[in-house]
Design brief:
The chain has seven helices and 35 strands. Strand 24 (about 385-395) and strand 25 (about 400-405) form a beta hairpin. The strands form nine sheets. Strands 1-8-7-6-5 form a five-stranded antiparallel β-sheet. It has about 550 residues and is mainly β. The two termini are about 30 Å apart. One of its GO terms (molecular function) is heme binding.
Length: about 550
C-alpha cells in the first residue's frame, strides 16, 4: 500500500475550562456567539483542539488560530477546514461534530481567546482527598492475584482506570479518575534511590489536572486511596526514585507541581513560563513529558513550547536545583535507553528526536527523523548490525525510524539512523520486549478504516514486516497502543470505538507474541488507551 502523509489531528482532549471563570472578550466588529453557545464551543475547543493549537491559540504542533489570521479565512472556509481537514495537516471532524457545532467552533476561533485562571498551592490543596488513611494501608496484598502481572489500563472517555489480571484476563475493577486520563505511572526500581514496595502504588493524571493514587495491594473496592488537582489541563506524571514524591506537569497553568507521594498534598509549584530557543518569551509554556531519571535523584521535565528540558533534583524541595537544557520545539513524549542514562524525546514539530544525557546534564544529540515523530512509551532492542537501537513511529507519515543508542560500546552507530521501516500509515505507538523477535507499530492516524484498524509487526533481524494484523473490522473502531505481559509471551492491543466512545464497547485483544495469533478478547472497556504492565514498568522494560 502506498505510504500517505498526514499531520497531527487536533484531538487535544484538554479538559474544558469553559466553566472555570473564563471571560468572553470580543470586539464589536468580531463574530459573536450567545453565552450558551460560546461556553459550548469553548468546551469543545479545549476538549478537542487545545492540545495541538494551545489554550491561547498561538499554535504548537497545530497552527496558530488567533483571530487576526482566522478572520482573514472567514466563516465558510473555516467550517470547511474543520469539517474535512487539510492535506498534510489536521484530520477531518465532520464525523465527530455536528454542522451546528462546526459552525460554532469556526465562529469561536475568530473571537478573542479567553484566558483561563491561574491556580495556587492553596487552591490545589483544597482538592486533596484521602480515601484510605496511610496508617490503614495493608502490609501485604489483600488478594491472591499476581499483582506484578496486573495491567493498569486507561479508560479515557469514561474517566476511569481499569485493573486487569494478566494471568486470568479478568477485569478486577474500574476506578474513577480524572477526565481523559493521559498517563499512569508507578514506582520503579532505581539505581540510586530505593522506594518501598516497588510497583505497588500507581498515579494517574487526567487532562483536567486531577491526580489519583492507586494501591494494587488493596481489595478492589479500596484501590483508590487519594486524589488531588494540580491544574485545569495536564498531561504527565512521575514518581521519585525513593517513592517520596510525585511530580505532575500542567498545560494550563503552565507549571509543574511536586506532591507528597503518600498523601498527594501539593508541596511545591514552579512556573515554566520563559524564553524559547529563539529568545522569544512564551507565556503558554506547557509541560509535556515528565520522567524520573533511573540513575539520578532527579526528574526530567519537558517544556513543549520553549524546547527546554529541565532536570530537577528532588532531594531538597526548599532549594530546588534545576538544570535547563535547550533542545528543539515542540517537545512531546519520550523514553530512556536501556542504560537509563539517555532520555530520548520527540520534538515532533521540529521532526527531531532529542537525546539528553542525564548524567552530564547536557544535550547529547538531535536526530533528524521524518514528519512528527511520536514514540509513545517507546521501544529499545538489539540490531545485529547497529547494536542497541531505539525506534519511533510518526504521526505525519507511515514510517518507523530506528537509530543506534549505545555510545559506549557502539560509538560509530550512536545517535545515527540505522534503518527505516515503511508502514501502511502514520502511527502513535511502538512497542517490543526483550524476549520478542518482533517490533509492533500501530497506524492510528491513517484515515482509511482498514489501515487504522490494523497493526504491523516487523522482524528485528530481517527488518521486514512479517504480518499486518487486522485487530477489528467493526465500523467506527480503531486499533492502538501495544503492551507485552511480564514474560513477553503475550501482546495486548487496544480497540477504541470512535463512534461510541463514551460507552464500554471497547476491548483489548491479546496475541501470542511468537505465533502472532489471537488468544483472547477482553470486552467491557471504554476507549482503552494505554495499558501498563506492572512488572515491565517497574523494571524499565521498553
Amino acid at each position: 500500500m502506498k505510504t500517505l502523509k498526514f499531520g497531527l489531528s487536533t484531538l487535544g482532549f484538554a479538559i474544558g475550562m469553559a466553566t472555570a471563570g473564563l471571560s468572553m472578550s470580543v470586539s464589536a466588529a468580531s463574530p459573536t456567539l450567545s453565552k450558551e453557545d460560546f461556553e459550548k464551543a469553548n468546551l469543545m475547543y479545549f476538549q478537542r483542539c487545545a492540545g495541538c493549537h494551545g489554550v491561547l491559540r498561538k499554535g504548537a504542533t497545530g497552527k496558530n488560530l488567533e483571530p487576526e489570521a482566522m478572520l482573514k479565512k472567514g466563516q465558510a472556509r473555516l467550517e470547511k477546514i474543520i469539517s474535512y481537514g487539510t492535506e498534510g495537516g489536521m484530520n477531518n471532524f465532520d464525523d465527530i461534530f455536528s454542522k451546528e457545532e462546526i459552525a460554532d467552533i469556526a465562529t469561536y476561533i475568530q473571537m478573542t481567546p479567553p484566558v483561563p485562571p491561574e491556580m495556587s498551592l492553596t487552591q490545589m490543596r483544597s482538592h486533596t482527598k484521602e480515601y484510605v488513611a496511610p496508617k490503614d494501608y495493608p502490609t501485604k496484598p489483600l488478594h491472591d492475584g499476581n499483582w506484578k502481572n496486573f495491567f493498569v489500563v486507561i479508560e479515557r472517555d469514561a474517566g476511569k482506570a481499569a485493573i486487569i489480571d494478566g494471568d486470568t484476563k479478568e477485569i478486577i475493577t474500574h476506578i474513577d479518575t480524572g477526565y481523559a486520563v493521559h498517563v499512569i505511572k508507578g514506582t520503579e526500581h532505581h539505581k540510586v534511590d530505593h522506594a518501598k514496595d516497588v510497583g505497588r502504588f500507581w498515579y494517574t493524571i487526567g487532562r483536567d489536572g486531577k491526580v489519583n493514587k492507586i494501591d494494587l495491594w488493596q481489595t478492589p473496592d479500596k484501590m483508590l486511596v487519594a486524589e488531588t488537582k494540580m491544574a485545569y489541563d495536564a498531561r504527565d506524571i512521575a514518581v521519585s526514585g525513593d517513592g517520596k514524591y510525585v511530580i505532575a506537569g500542567g498545560y494550563w497553568p503552565p507549571h509543574f507541581v511536586i506532591m507528597d507521594a503518600e498523601t498527594l498534598n501539593p508541596l511545591k509549584v514552579v512556573s515554566t513560563r520563559g524564553y524559547n530557543t529563539k529568545g522569544d518569551y512564551v507565556n503558554e509554556a506547557r509541560v509535556a513529558a515528565i520522567y524520573t531519571a533511573p540513575n539520578e535523584s532527579s526528574f526530567i521535565v519537558a517544556v513543549k513550547e520553549t524546547g527546554q528540558m529541565l532536570q530537577v533534583d528532588y532531594n531538597d524541595l526548599d532549594n530546588l536545583t534545576i538544570t535547563a537544557i535547550a533542545s528543539a520545539e515542540f517537545l512531546h513524549d519520550g523514553f530512556f535507553d536501556p542504560s537509563g542514562r539517555y532520555f530520548q524525546i520527540a520534538a515532533n514539530a521540529s521532526n527531531k528526536m532529542v537525546v539528553i544525557d542525564t548524567k552530564d546534564r547536557e544535550l547529547e544529540m538531535m536526530i533528524e527523523v521524518d514528519s512528527l515523530p511520536h514514540p509513545g512509551p517507546g521501544a529499545n532492542w538489539i540490531d545485529e548490525k547497529c547494536g542497541p537501537v531505539a525506534g519511533t513511529t510518526h504521526l505525519g507519515t507511515g514510517l518507523v525510524s530506528v537509530w543506534g543508542n549505545d555510545p559506549i560500546n557502539h560509538p560509530d552507530q550512536a545517535w545515527k539512523l540505522c534503518y527505516e521501516v515503511e508502514t501502511d500509515g502514520p502511527g502513535a505507538f511502538i512497542r517490543t520486549h526483550e524476549t520478542s523477535d518482533y517490533v509492533w507499530a500501530d497506524q492510528l492516524k491513517h484515515p482509511e478504516p482498514e489501515v487504522q484498524q490494523s497493526v504491523q509487526v516487523f522482524d528485528k533481524k530481517t527488518r521486514e514486516i512479517v504480518k499486518t494484523i487486522r485487530v477489528t473490522e467493526e465500523e467506527g473502531k480503531a486499533a492502538l497502543h501495544m503492551e507485552f505481559n511480564d514474560d513477553g509471551t503475550e501482546v495486548w492491543v487496544s480497540v477504541w470505538n470512535r463512534a461510541d466512545a463514551s460507552n464500554p464497547t471497547g476491548e483489548i485483544v491479546i496475541y501470542d507474541a511468537k505465533t502472532l495469533k489471537e488468544i483472547k478478547r477482553i470486552k467491557g472497556l471504554t476507549t482503552p488507551t494505554g495499558k501498563f504492565n506492572v512488572s515491565n514498568r517497574m523494571n524499565h522494560k521498553t
